[in-house]
Amino acid sequence: MSTGARADVSHGAFHLDSTVPGAASRGLDAFRRGWETQLGGGFRLPAFSPATIGDFRVKGRAARLSDVTIADLHGASATRTAGTPRGDEDLVRMYVVRQGAWALDGPRERDEHTVSAGQFLLRHFGHPSAFETAPHTTAKIAFLPTTMLGPLLGNRTITGPVESPEVRLLVAHSNMVHETIADLSPAGVHAAHSTLIELAKAVAQSRFDDMEPLLAPSLAQAAKELADRHLAHPELSPTMLARELRVSVRTLQRAFAAVGESVTTYIRHRRLERARLALTAGPGRPSVAELAAHWQFADSSHFIRAFKKRYGQTPTEYARSTRPT
């Protein structure tokens, strides 16, 4: 387990991996220490079942920004709380499940929900909830302040697909927080926190203000993550990305310009990077013509010119230079 937190208590982060051999039996203790030390006592962990304690194989990271905590978790083992947690917990929680399933019990039968792969849930929790996860569950959890989101949510439970534009933006922003938290200034912490709150409100309202400058970096990042999953798709373009994120092409271009890039340049550079990696594959690597076709260049000549402009060598020269002597 590795930890890292600033001297102030406004933000901190930690990583844990108890999926490595021999770590499962002490994984929960390490996780609890890191969680409570780095993220503070305001986000208490529940008691877990004996089976969970004895086989806690979880890999994850968590970050705190003032009164917001976000965690990315992958549980190789199943987890289950022990009994019904007691006490008060005035928090809004959001679950974004990519794989597996996360089952939540509420104080009333109607509050019981299972968040399946590809779905999210956003709800105000007035009390701690029992939960159970299936093996190999991958999820992002956000713990959010009730003062800013409770009045908007009321007693509603918001659910839907993780591919909705609002959830895409929130996930993209939280990923940026995880990557940059160690370098954030106090002003950066405040901006990152404010953006997370605004995006959580957008999820609750099923819409976001695409003219809000604060959201431009998150919109650009969401578009990048979407593009990275469709780099070989022949229809990948600013138009396709804008359509998936429900914004105009002009709004998307403006978001990229705010971070000093263009949409088309990003797509081209990512495709060239994938092609460059393929050229180092050794025997059986694709030909230049195959790479050009796979990464959606008009023809081999266009691909060769773009590659040389980017890397200073033709694809053939690059492949030759990386070949073992």
From TrEMBL:
PROSITE patterns the record matches: HTH_ARAC_FAMILY_1, HTH_ARAC_FAMILY_2
The UniProt record lists the keyword Transcription regulation: yes
Q: Where is the HTH araC/xylS-type domain?
A: 221-321
| InterPro entries noted in UniProt | Homeodomain-like_sf, HTH_AraC, HTH_AraC-typ_CS, PchR_regulatory_protein, Tscrpt_reg_AraC-type_HTH
Which keywords fit this entry according to its UniProt record? DNA-binding, Transcription, Transcription regulation
Q: What is this protein called?
A: Helix-turn-helix domain-containing protein
Q: Which organism is it from?
A: Streptomyces phaeochromogenes
The lineage is: Bacteria, Bacillati, Actinomycetota, Actinomycetes, Kitasatosporales
